[in-house]
Amino acid sequence: MIVLGQMLAERRRSLVWWSLSIAALAAIVGASYPAVRDVGSQIEQLVRQLPRGVLELMGAGGGIASPAGYLNSRFYSGLFPILLLVFGIMVAAWTVAGAEREGTLEPLLANPVSRTRVALERFAGTAVLLAVLTSAGTAVFVVLRGPFELASLGVGRLVAAGVGVFLLAMVFTALTFATGAATGNKGAAIAAGAGTAAATYLVFALAAFVEFFRNLRWLSPWDWFLSPSPLTGGWTAWAVWPPLLVVAAAVAVGTALFARRDLR
């Protein structure tokens, strides 16, 4: 796993800073919950006036002052996934297409190593980096759920939420990787991952208001993760198996096309 090890070694410093930033952000969100809970009745009165679709979009269907509703609305339904997506898409776009554009991929392939191995190990490295960032945010809530007064959320549900948001980010990361590997175009890779993430979120957001999008909601990875949220529903097959199938298919197709095309 030399290619994987080299990739992780090159990104260890940025990984440390990203991990610390996400952990600090999670700590700020968690430490703010007691203050929100103390004025929970006032917040709930305001929230009840919002349309049901808005509550579903916020992930606060169970009440925004409850531990699950608070973490969903403030962290897991938007902020945390977006940070993981930014990092995952950035790294995945570099793995093949970015390195090819920089001129560092061809010297690597001049060594006795196959294209398939390079692609798979670099994608595995991307997955490892994302897993570390997800663990950094999840660990804060698991370790400090007592001081944060989030003890009613079991460790199992917090871990399920961490795994769910990791798989959500991996779906769009895999699409970015596959596009870059197949085309060698870094811009196209970023556009594929970020564009698909935005489009599927739009479908998920509008599903509560528009019948047409409601019929397409099951196609959105955001729906797989948030309906229901792992913080309220625990482990669900819908949040695990569809993302895994999409990731496996995207990586297989991207790697196969990369092994057969000419370098740009």
TrEMBL record:
<keyword id="KW-0472">Membrane</keyword>
<feature type="transmembrane region" description="Helical">
    <location>
        <begin position="15"/>
        <end position="36"/>
    </location>
</feature>
<dbReference type="GO" id="GO:0005886">
    <property type="term" value="C:plasma membrane"/>
</dbReference>
<protein>
    <recommendedName>
        <fullName>ABC transporter permease</fullName>
    </recommendedName>
</protein>
<dbReference type="Pfam" id="PF12679">
    <property type="entry name" value="ABC2_membrane_2"/>
</dbReference>
<feature type="transmembrane region" description="Helical">
    <location>
        <begin position="156"/>
        <end position="178"/>
    </location>
</feature>
<keyword id="KW-1133">Transmembrane helix</keyword>
<feature type="transmembrane region" description="Helical">
    <location>
        <begin position="233"/>
        <end position="259"/>
    </location>
</feature>
<keyword id="KW-0812">Transmembrane</keyword>
<feature type="transmembrane region" description="Helical">
    <location>
        <begin position="190"/>
        <end position="213"/>
    </location>
</feature>
<feature type="transmembrane region" description="Helical">
    <location>
        <begin position="123"/>
        <end position="144"/>
    </location>
</feature>
<dbReference type="GO" id="GO:0140359">
    <property type="term" value="F:ABC-type transporter activity"/>
</dbReference>
<feature type="transmembrane region" description="Helical">
    <location>
        <begin position="75"/>
        <end position="97"/>
    </location>
</feature>
